[in-house]
Design a protein that fits this description.
729 residues; alpha/beta; Arc Repressor Mutant, subunit A; Tex N-terminal region-like; Nucleotidyltransferase, domain 5; 5 domains; 5-stranded mixed beta sheet; 5-stranded mixed beta barrel; globular; S1_Tex; RNA-binding transcriptional accessory protein; NA-bd_OB-fold; structural constituent of ribosome
Length: 729
């Protein structure tokens, strides 16, 4: 064996991550290096994306997040590479060739394949055979040097009853066990068999014993097969859930004969007396070790890939939901509908503060429409500035909606009636956040308040709820929960910072998602606000306990102060640029208060005059955008959908109906649409458009209003098949 390298030389120095990541994210090395430097300084993704564009070359937030993810991957790979090198070197087995292979490995799988023969392992048939002194016999088989004689003749010399090798057959079997493990642990062959299984293997599912006659949502998979390389993520997750619930068994069927032949060709390289023994070792190694291990690896990788895709879908839907158009700061009434226990009614002011509440019984079993209308009269007289009524879309929602809309028509009141998705409202009602906000009220009042606030500002209200309770995920409880939480937190952070928050009205829950803050500082801000009154400007943040210079830099641009002396405090212009903007206003011959909000005047500014070493066109263009429309909201304009009055339950549906609906969830296989019957219908991906649709998310988003045609109703399974493309035809 070649001697091990000097202990001082085998560890790999930390690489240039910018050079590794730049081609992966399709940005320049200098841009990636700048992003990495800023992130390592403690800057957040939203801050870097919004306020350091000159350094990053205008890299978008998604690219910066991708750089952060890849940076973590490459750092972990570098650390793992050195752990492996150190482990093998400590065993005295690190040859220059092996070191070069480990240094050149670019994936975790490649690294682990190379490490496999040197990884500490439990006792196996191979280790037992080595303990019995059979490795020299295995090496002779492996070398394939002997062309004359019989294997038994060579094996006879290794028979030793005291070592547990009683016969020649025992000796040959032990040698084959050693070779079977050696074959399994050879990185190149392992990689080729893995690739063959990915390319030619099939997923096979069968119904579990005792479940053959049971009707379930997994019926389609009771006898199912699909190529490994083509199975989509949602199908893998469905199959794995079926396994977990005891309905299915899943296996990965490799091309066994091809795999064995592939390894045979690599192992049996010359004619010798050992041909048969080697083929037996290959067959045993593939059947007992290699193929089961590859199946486990592929199963894990399929799950990881499916998790990533499901989390991507969930994150996309969550982003659309959180960025749904707000009604805005206007007084509203909200109703949490119900049957036996009645409908809880609340009245909220423009900031979402609870003003009044009560209960009405417009639905079964009481059907007290007269009493409901009388109560509504009282509330509207007491609160004449109400502009909308938000009604939860849960049980009794359509019936309550119809009663309220009829009442408003009778009274000729110009008030909007909106059906609001109440998913997760009950989770909020019982939460610590809700108890802190509404300590004097029970869960029914809190639920109605949440519905009303969702209409006023979906983002501000939904951040109080665990995203998994909102109902826009795909197999969300089956995926890697730590990764799911990380990615959903990233989405929430992006949305909150994209919109910005009112420093003087934002809840602690909302504030904690602002760049650089977190729960502790968010609580300090609210405590300071409660004790000292509203913040007069952004600069007053410096008086908050624990909020230092770096945190102020990261957070200030995303916090708004409305109605203050400086109009820039209600924009995304960062305080570090206030002096520059004031200079621009002086050059324009206008007070800053008159320049802000005057698009025509702003467009006359010659930005090139202000470019210097510290500020470039990226920042100046962002400043102009903010000056044109201070306090702008990046979310879409508010819109509502009208449901048909004569369609309120699934039993009211008939094939061919054309209905309005709202997209509630987008998955890889289609989109779910609320058509007002307490059961979302599915628009399969093939029914979205006349052209081929690869990804439904490219065509539809959560909250989008669509027209659909009812294709099929399955009352037994409560399933509704819808079509968008046929509704347009």
């Amino acid at each position: 064996m070649t001697t091990s390298p000097d202990a001082q030389n085998f560890l790999v120095p930390e690489p240039s991550y910018a050079k590794l990541i730049a081609p992966e994210v399709q940005l320049t090395v200098s841009s990636v290096a700048a992003v990495i430097a800023l992130l390592d300084e403690g800057c957040t993704v939203p801050f870097v994306a919004r306020y350091r564009k000159e350094a990053t070359g205008g890299a978008e937030d998604f690219a910066i997040q991708q750089i952060l993810d890849r940076l973590q991957f490459h750092r972990e790979l570098w650390q793992r590479r050195n752990v492996i090198l150190e482990s093998i070197a400590s065993q005295g087995k690190l040859t220059p060739e092996l070191q070069a292979a480990i240094v050149g490995a670019v994936t975790r799988a490649e690294l682990e394949d190379l490490y496999l023969p040197y990884r500490p392992k439990r006792r196996t048939r191979a280790t037992i055979a080595k303990e019995r002194g059979l490795e020299p016999l295995a090496d002779r088989m492996w070398a394939q040097a002997e062309r004359a004689g019989m294997p038994e003749e060579h094996a006879a010399a290794f028979v030793d009853g005291e070592k547990g090798v009683a016969t020649v057959d025992d000796a040959l079997q032990g040698a084959r066990d050693i070779l079977a493990e050696r074959i399994t642990e050879t990185a190149d062959w392992r990689a080729r068999v893995r690739e063959l299984t990915w390319r030619r293997g099939r997923i096979r599912t069968q119904v579990s014993r005792g479940k053959a006659g049971a009707t379930s949502k997994f019926t389609d998979y009771y006898d199912y097969s699909e190529p490994v390389e083509r199975i989509p993520s949602h199908r893998i997750l469905a199959i794995l859930r079926g396994e977990q619930e005891g309905f299915l068994s899943m296996s990965i069927q490799p091309e066994t004969e091809q795999a064995v032949e592939l390894v045979n060709r690599a192992v049996v390289t010359r004619r010798s007396i050992w041909d048969e023994q080697l083929r037996l070792a290959v067959a045993d190694g593939c059947d007992r070790l290699l193929l089961p291990q590859i199946e486990t690896e592929i199963r894990v990788q399929l799950k990881e890939t499916a998790d990533l895709e499901a989390i991507r879908v969930f994150a996309t839907n969550l982003r659309e939901l959180l960025m749904a158009p707000p009604l805005g700061g206007r007084p509203v009434m909200a109703i949490d509908p119900g049957f036996r226990t009645g409908c809880k009614v609340v009245v909220l002011d423009a900031t979402g503060r609870l003003l009044d509440h009560g209960v009405v019984y417009p639905t079964e079993p009481r059907n007290d429409v007269v009493g409901t209308e009388s109560a509504l009269d009282r509330w509207f007289r007491a609160h004449p500035d109400l502009v909308a009524v938000a009604i939860g879309n849960g049980t009794g929602g359509r019936e309550t909606f119809a009663v309220v809309r009829s009442y408003l028509k009778k009274r000729d009141r110009n008030v909007l009636v909106v059906s609001v998705n109440e998913s997760g409202a009950s989770v909020y009602s019982a939460s610590e956040v809700a108890r802190d906000e509404l300590p004097e009220h029970d869960v029914t009042v809190r639920g109605a308040v949440s519905i009303g606030r969702r209409l006023q500002d979906p983002l501000a209200e939904l951040v109080k709820i665990d995203p998994k309770a909102i109902g826009v995920g795909q197999y969300q409880h089956d995926v890697d929960q730590k990764l799911l939480r990380t990615k959903l937190d990233e989405v929430v952070e992006w949305c909150v910072n994209q919109v910005g928050v009112d420093l003087n009205t934002a809840s602690m829950t909302l504030l904690q998602h602002i760049s650089g803050l977190g729960p502790k500082l968010a609580r300090s801000i609210v405590t300071h606000r409660d004790q000292n009154g509203p913040f007069p400007d952004r600069a007053a943040l410096g008086k908050v306990a624990g909020l230092g210079r770096k945190t102020f830099e990261q957070a200030a641009g995303f916090l708004r102060v409305k109605g203050g002396k400086n109009p820039l405090d209600d924009t995304a212009v960062h305080p570090e640029r206030y002096a520059l903007v004031e200079r621009i206003a002086r050059d324009a011959g206008r007070p800053l208060a008159r320049l802000a909000g005057d698009p025509e005047a702003v467009r006359t500014i010659d930005l090139r005059r202000y470019v210097d070493d510290s500020v470039g066109l990226y920042t100046l263009q962002d400043i102009v955008t903010e000056l044109e429309k201070p306090g702008r909201d990046p979310r879409r304009d508010f819109a509502t959908v009208d449901f048909r009055d004569d369609v309120q339950t699934i039993e009211d549906l008939t094939s061919g109906m054309i209905l309005n609906g709202t997209v509630t969830n987008v998955t890889n296989f289609g989109a779910f649409v609320d058509i007002g019957v307490h059961q979302d219908g599915l628009v399969h991906v093939s029914q979205i458009a006349d052209r081929f649709v690869r990804d439904p998310a490219e065509e539809l988003h959560v909250g989008q209003t669509v027209r659909v045609k009812v294709l099929e109703i399955d009352l037994d399974r409560r399933r509704i098949a819808l079509s968008i493309k046929q509704a347009a035809g």
